[in-house]
Amino acid sequence: MPTITKEMTIAEALRIDRGTAPIFMQFGMHCLGCPSATGESIEDAAAVHGIDADALIKALNDYLSSK
Q1: Of 17, 34, 37, 36, the residue nearest 59 (C-alpha)
Q2: What whole-number distance in Å separates Cα of residue 17 and Cα of residue 8?
Q3: pTM of this prediction?
Q4: In 3D, which of 27, 30, 34 has the Cα closest to residue 11?
Q5: Which H or E run includes 45?
Q6: Secondary-structure breakdown of the chain: helix, strand, coil percentages, each rounded to the nearest 5
Q7: What Å distances lie between residue 31 and 44, 66, 67, CA to CA?
Q8: How far does Cα 21 stand from its chain's mean position?
Q9: Which of 1, 15, 24, 48 has its C-alpha lying 20 to 30 A from 64's C-alpha?
Q10: CA 5 to CA 18: how far, in whole Å?
Q11: pLDDT tens across 8-65, in order?
């Protein structure tokens, strides 16, 4: 099972599993298709949106491990 890291882009996480999209949205990251989603890390995007990157990564990986 792949693991999502803060260094990955949102697009990379979505390629691992499209089911991660609702988790990003729950955390307030609604622009999953914007250019930044392919160019900046999840950690950088979380910082821009004022989101706890560690909590987001934990939620994403909890979702993946529950499948």
Answers
A1: 17
A2: 13
A3: 0.92
A4: 34
A5: helix 42-49
A6: 60, 5, 35
A7: 14, 25, 25
A8: 8
A9: 48
A10: 16
A11: 999 999 999 999 999 999 999 988 888 888 889 999 999 999 999 999 999 999 999 9
pLDDT of 36? 80
Q: How many whole angstroms separate alpha carbon 64 and alpha carbon 48?
A: 25
Beta-carbon contacts of residue 3 (< 8 Å; ≥ 6 apart):
61, 64
pLDDT 10s digits, 21-30: 999 999 999 8
With beta carbons less than 8 A apart as the criterion, state whether 48 and 39 touch.
no
**If we measure between CA atoms, which residue out of 2, 35, 47 comes closest to residue 20?**
2
User: Residues near 50 by Cβ (< 8 Å), separated by ≥ 6?
Assistant: 28
